[in-house]
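1st attempt posting a full record on here, be nice pls
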Amino acid sequence: MGDFKYKRILLKLSGETLASKSGYGIDVDEAESIAGRIKEVHETGLEIAVVIGAGNLWRGKQGLEHGMDRSTADYMGMLATVMNSMALMDALERQGVYTRVLSAIEMRAIAEPYIRRRAIRHLEKGRVVIFGAGTGNPFFSTDTAAALRATEIDADVVIKATKVDGVYDSDPKKNPDAVKFDSLTYIDVLNRRLEVMDSTAITHCMENKVPILVVNMWDNHALLAALRGEVVGTFVHG
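the predicted structure (as tokens):
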């Protein structure tokens, strides 16, 4: 593990990473593919925590457009993240990686309650820890949950997994002249309104000096190269 820049990482995945080609549901093949990437990093000896979203199962915005109560919509999203967490846990354990799901909303039959010291102990024992149910509070996104958990467990970096090779000044799929950033400050991200993570998450990382690394999770070599300190993706820092 000596050639790696970090020891403990927090990996932020969107719910869509588990989705089928339609963008919805849980595709077992996709879950196994993501589990394989995580296993590859885990085998280097790095400590890995994961926060996963719920966009493949529930989008609270749709409920709000029909007059749904915001808290109800957010709690439904939190429950959906636990379903995704269990799917990823199962895929990891079938590949021989010991995994624990810790939920911010207590549901002892299927997940351990989130306790900071317990989470750290699991990481120290070499288990992948998946944080479910966001922060446990409505009005906060899973981006904010990732930033919060990263600071709580003293993670060295937040890895934001994407399907592009970094952060651009505009959508590279729509603009062939889009410019990629190798490095950005937190203030740059906020001022430019770049869609790295939501503003609450960016501000939390800035205040607690937690760097963010935006990497293409689907590039076979990008994640490990970035963890070694190579210039890959986009690095957001103070």
